[in-house]
Amino acid sequence: MSLIVILTGAGISAESGVESFRDEGGIWSRYDYREVATPEGFAANPTLVHEFYNDRRAQMQTVGPNAAHFALARLEQEFDGEVLTITQNIDDLHERAGTKNLVHMHGELGKALCVRCNTRLAWKDQLSMFDHCPNCGHTGCLRPDVVWFGESPYHMDIIEEALARASLYLSIGTSGNVYPAAMFVEEAARSGAHTVELNLEPSEISHQFNRTIKGPATEIVPRFVD
Ligand SMILES: CC(C)NC(=O)[C@H](Cc1c[nH]c2ccccc12)NC(=O)[C@H](CCCC/N=C(/NCCC(=O)O)S[C@H]1O[C@H](COP(=O)(O)OP(=O)(O)OC[C@H]2O[C@@H](n3cnc4c(N)ncnc43)[C@H](O)[C@@H]2O)[C@@H](O)[C@H]1O)NC(=O)OCc1ccccc1
């Protein structure tokens, strides 16, 4: 059975007020990703890393899904069971817009992971080295449940299986700088999928798509979906 596979990045949440990484004044222009988004950075300075994610987690309480998130939730409803949304984003705006068949390949801000017993916990507030794991009782063993550079993305089995039977592949609001996500268009094309990029600016991989649509996600995604 054919499948619509959608990949989203920071650009889909930009108009909700969630910063992107590489755009003008983006997150990586203020932080060195080696210090805050690598296991080595966390080992060297866990307090700095907790502060970085605590600020982004706090911001989640102040933003909401936009017209692009809602359009994708409508698309999923319309094509019941034939749509998979893969997001690189760690925010919860897709869920809050109503998308159900969703995988967070780079983790979630709203979860904490115990590095000792591998338990995952819903975590809404500040996280620090002084928190203890309710499962194994150890302290100083909780980290943000996000995938850092050099770590394996989550749900790659579900993702590979979906790309192998994709008939339509949409890439929305991502710059195509980070792997393996930037390779998904090639895999979808190999499965015979029609590939469309929806982005404010051309990305590193625009040339690999059958079609590119330029503009703000809140305008071009509802227009493409409805
Ligand atoms: C920098 C890069 C060169 N490095 C990598 O890719 C590395 C290393 C690597 C692996 N393979 C390679 C091959 C070649 C070279 C390097 C590598 N990859 C890894 O380490 C990955 C893990 C990477 C995950 C890192 N964690 C993130 N995030 C979580 C944390 C956090 O969020 O803090 S990455 C982070 O940046 C990524 C890219 O950001 P974008 O979402 O694209 O945002 P960006 O700001 O860049 O762009 C925004 C775009 O939106 C557009 N836009 C802006 N506003 C709007 C708007 N309003 N409307 C529409 N569009 C808009 C803009 O024009 C722009 O194009 C996202 O994935 C995001 O999650 N792990 C791995 O490969 O493990 C092995 C493996 C592989 C396969 C299978 C098993 C194991």
UniProtKB/TrEMBL annotation:
Subcellular location per the Swiss-Prot or TrEMBL entry: Cytoplasm
GO cellular component entries: cytoplasm
Annotated residues for binding of substrate: Y53, R56
Cofactor comment: Binds 1 zinc ion per subunit.
Organism: Nitratireductor aestuarii
Positions bound to Zn(2+): C114, C117, C133, C136
Family matches, as Pfam families: SIR2
Keywords: Cytoplasm, Metal-binding, NAD, Transferase, Zinc
The record's note on its domains: 2 residues (Tyr-53 and Arg-56) present in a large hydrophobic pocket are probably involved in substrate specificity. They are important for desuccinylation activity, but dispensable for deacetylation activity.
The enzyme's E.C. designation: 2.3.1.286
Protein name: NAD-dependent protein deacylase
